Amino acid sequence: MTTGDDQPTVSDERGVPLRDLQRPEHLKALAHPRRLQLLDLLIAEGPLTASQCAERIGDSAASCSYHLRQLARYGFVEEAEGGRGRNRPWRRVPVGNRVTAGGSPAERAAVEALGTVLDARNQELVQSWSRRRSGDPWREVAGTSDWTLRITERELADLSAAVTALIAPLQRRTLDGVVPEGSRVVDVLTHLLPRADTRTVAAQREDDDGA
Questions:
Q1: Is-contact 172 17, C-beta < 8 A?
Q2: Tens of pLDDT along 14-29?
Q3: pLDDT-based confidence at 81, cuts 50/70/90?
Q4: pLDDT in tens, 145-177
Q5: DSSP strands (E only) in the chain
C-alpha cells in the first residue's frame, strides 16, 4: 500500500500498518519536539483543532497550525470531519512509524536528528512518570525494569520479534481509536541496546598500534 508522492510508503507488519520513514524529508518532518507532542496529544484526545491543541500544550494556535500542516503534508495527520478554516479539527492518521533509511550521508543525518528528538522526548516521559508515580493509582502495575543479558544476535532478533508480537494487537486497537472502558494511554518504551564489543575494540587498537 502506498500514499501520495510526498508521503512515505505504508506496509503491514503483524496486522499493524507502518509508515516507512526513509527519505530525509520524512524523517525531518518528525524531528521536532512540538510535532511529537502534537501527535501524542491527538492519540490521547483527538480530534482537536489547532486552538485546542494550543490550550493543552501551552503554545499559540498559529504555531500549532503550522506544525499540523507540516505533519499533514507527509501523512502523519489529516483533517477530521466538522469545522471550517481555523476551527477545523485534526486527527492522527492511524499508522505507525518505522525507520528504514539507508546509508547516505543525508539519510544518516536525518536519522540522527530524529533520534535526538525522540531520546529527549522519551527521557521526559520517564522523568514525568517518576515525579508522579507515588500518587498514581496504576503504580503497582506499571513496570520499570532493566536486565543485562548475554545473548546471540539471533536471540536478540527473536526477543525483539516476541516483544513486537505482544504489542502489535494493542497498537492496532489504539490506532483504530478503540477506547476500552477504564483504559488509559500508556507509553511503552523498549530499548534493546547491544554494548560495544570491548574485545573487538581492543583488537582493533592493537592492529592500529602495530601498523
A1: no
A2: 788 999 998 999 999 9
A3: confident
A4: 889 999 999 999 999 999 999 999 999 999 888
A5: 9-13, 16-21, 77-79, 90-92, 96-99
Query: What cell was used for 174?
Result: 489504539
| Exposure of 157 in the CB half-sphere (CA atoms within 13 A) | 3
pTM for the full predicted model? 0.81
Question: Residue 181 carries which side chain, given as an amino acid letter?
Answer: E
Omega before 89 within 30 of 0, i.e. cis? no
Q: How far apart are the first and last CA of the chain?
A: 52
pLDDT at 200: 60
CA-based nearest residue to 107, from 52, 182, 200, 31: 31
Residue 207 has pLDDT above 80, yes or no: no
Q: How far apart are CA 50 and CA 65, in angstroms?
A: 5
Pairing of strands 16-21, 96-99: parallel
* Burial class for 168, CB neighbours closer than 10 Å (0-12, 13-18, 19+): middle
The rounded distance, in Å, linking the Cα atoms of 13 and 144 is 27
Grid coordinates in use for 56? Answer: 493543552
Query: Is residue 115 within a helix (H) or strand (E), and if so which, with residue range?
Result: helix 105-132
